[in-house]
Amino acid sequence: MNKILRISYQNPSLIDELEKNQEQINKVYQNVLNRQIIEKKFLAWIDLPEKELENNKIEYLESLAKDLVDKDIKVLVVIGTGSAILPTKTIYENIYKKDKNKKNLELLFVGQSISAESLIEQLKYVENKRFAINVISKSGAPIEPALAFREFRKLLESKIGANNAKKLIFITSDSKKGVLHDLASENNYKFLNIPEEIVIRFAAFSNVTLFPLMCAGIDVKNYLKGALEANKNFKIFNFEQNYAYKYTALKYSLSKKINVELFEIINSKNSTILKWIIQLLVETRSKNGKGLFTSNTYNSQMNLKHKNVLKTIINFKNNQAQNLDNLEKEYSNKLPYLDGTKLHEVNWSLLRKKLITQENFLEEDDIRITIENINEFNFGFLFQMFFYVATMNGVLNGVNPFNQPGVDVYKNNIFKSFKE
Q: What is the pLDDT of residues 97-135, one digit of tens each?
């Protein structure tokens, strides 16, 4: 296997901590690998990439995307909560390029807030463009995407009529039940199913992500192949070679002495992936009063309050990064230390200098994940790896990785407030 990523750490005492927890970590690893956890039916996400590649699903999605291109649609409005759209948004922001020859669609992501100002701005953006709608929700219950769908559907129908609008509305939802499932049947909208046993935050290799990526001209097959490679990697029972196992073991061993877990990323262009990782981990492992406080913000208040912090620093290396070797003579003579230095190395150096000035920054307890290149294959690998990490973290914490009690409370409170 070609090198996809590296996971590194500096604290030599971690080996002792790992040995103390080795038996428990190994047991959880074997249970997930052999699907012997109580909630095993929800491990269906493991097989999803292979099923999508084998069942001619890609060809069907290609035909849907081509139909939109043939109709001269310019924008696909992707409506959903963070769990539903953050994987798509991460890949889109890093890989999408407008290509006049391919005529791939632009994606507009909406439905993550109930801000009237933001919604009006997004509606105005597509007001004079030819657009289609893809609304994504397993249950159809979240209020934010429901409000956004209502307004975008109203705009689309006002532009081209209700009957024509039906041909440009795609519903991605539960295959058997739910508000959106019923709405699609009643209005004859195009329907893309989410398998019943796939929890929405583990649906990155289903229609939830594949259809909008296909519309944007992203190489979906390579993306799925990256996930398949992650499945192969997870079967390697070796600390250094199995990335999901290694990262989980390091995090769990450090969790005995930390209060807070923080994520940092070197290139701000990749910041969406931090939102996805944090939401995935929080909803999967941090519930029932268990789990760490997890954030991507490192500030002075947090320093004063929390002495022990674990930080994961993620670095995407770009193989196209240029050396800073074209400086004008007047500058290169004065800044010789930049000669031959790659931009990502400068970013990393500056980030380290910034972080180690923090009073309670525990440099030796950092875990650094370096992704060797930005492409569909590596994103597929990374997402599937984090699904394994989140699942193992949840089991190690003694919680059900696949339920979402906090989200359910939020939904119930929203419904109550509207009834009142």
A: 755 556 789 999 999 887 889 999 999 999 999 999 999
Residue bearing tokens 């230095």: 341
Alpha carbon distances (Å) from 56 to 50, 304, 381, 396, 401: 11, 55, 21, 37, 30
**Helix pair 376-396, 82-95: axis angle to 10 deg:** 150
CATH architecture for residues 5-36+223-406: 3-Layer(aba) Sandwich (3.40)
Residue 334's SS3 state is: coil
Q: Of 280, 394, 322, 279, which is closest to residue 38 (Cα–Cα)? A: 394
The CATH class for the domain spanning 44-218 reads alpha beta
Domain with CATH 3.40.50.10490 in the chain: 5-36+223-406, 44-218
pTM for the full predicted model: 0.86
> For residue 267, what is the DSSP state?
S
Q: Are 178 and 185 in contact (CB under 8 A)?
A: no
β-bridge mates for residue 26, sequence order: none
Across the beta sheet with 190-194, the strand order is 106-110, 75-79, 131-136, 169-174, 190-194
